Amino acid sequence: MRRYRDHALKMDREDPLSHLRDNFYLQAHKIYLEGNSLGLLNKQAEARILESIQEWKDLGIDGWLSARSPWFWLAEKVGTKMAKLVGAKSGEVIATGGTTQNIHTLFSAFYRPDERRRKIVADILSFPSDLYAIKSIIKLKGGDPEKDLVLVQSKNEKHLAESDFIDHLADDVVIVWISPVLYQSGQLLDIADIAREAQSQGVLVGLDCSHSAGVVPHTLHENNIDFATWCGYKYLNGGPGSTGFLFVHEKHQDQEPGLQGWFGYKKRQQFAMHPSFDHEPGAAGWQTSTPNILSLAALDGSLDLLNEVGIEVIRKKSLLLTDFLMECVQNMLLPAHKDLKIVTPADSARRGGHVSLQHPAARLISLALNARGVVVDHRPPDVIRMAPSALYSSFQDVYNALEILKVIMDDGNLEQYDRGVKWVP
Question: What is this structure's pTM?
Fold first, then answer.
């Protein structure tokens, strides 16, 4: 164990991003490994929020046009910053809504079933709210989710194969919906292969990048992804309930949004108050309601930090952290605890930004870790997720967390942590 502790210290000394840790509000006496659920506050985001509050005080309604970053165009500004992190053009991304709301917005326009094409292909491991939204859209369009939603199955309840998606593509499919990183296992899918095959068959490709944006590089424009959405509160550190993002490829810039609202109207004519809707070209036209300025301000500051570092650099450190985490589990824990398994792929090309461990007592282990200051989450029935952040986690954090996990596992008295809580957020 000492060699892993020494290695962690060495990696921290050599880490070119170690200074960024001081930009974040770390929790005293805690090891935070839940950036895949809610990223921590950074000082850039805080400063922009406080600036916007001061502008609200000083300017009132004039902030819409006279703030340092005028509120009227702030969603577009933040979208342009985000586009750099996901391989998109600036006009293809807008900061708006939330993930589920944006799924409704996108599918309302792109899902156009007819007598020949009616089906949507998704997968059984999708985040549940994605499926809730898709099923409701199918019903709103007069279809039957039992027939019109085709779910790719997992052979082991944790992983998927790209070929499984491709095998389900057919001339009756309208859209294939994919999450590049699976939220339970942390598996990273090769989207390019699926996208090429789908496009060759006239099938639209949509993505939920919530568990990959900000930690994994994307090439949304180059891969001709038709549309995508993701949240702003995980690896983007935009704060709880943060505004999400919506991507529409430029080839669809003239596509009329299915859900229309006044903030999607042509910007220069928005206050003309015409009774007929005329949308702004590109992703900006897919906005509906007035944006949440304080939430956008947090993202505005946080994305400055991410772009300063660069997504490739973030990815490199993220993989080093998760490599180290998996190596420590492999050698410090697995030999003595046969029920514990690593379900995240060892191959870095197949791994997102978090590591998932599987154990029959995952809920109690998660409670025990949280009780001892290691912030992780449990995903029923048997997964513990650990997500060190490239921006604020140290290698020593990872080692210390696993040393605590080893003490908990070796002790074996997990029932003491059972407080009747059935889910650990």
Answer: 0.95
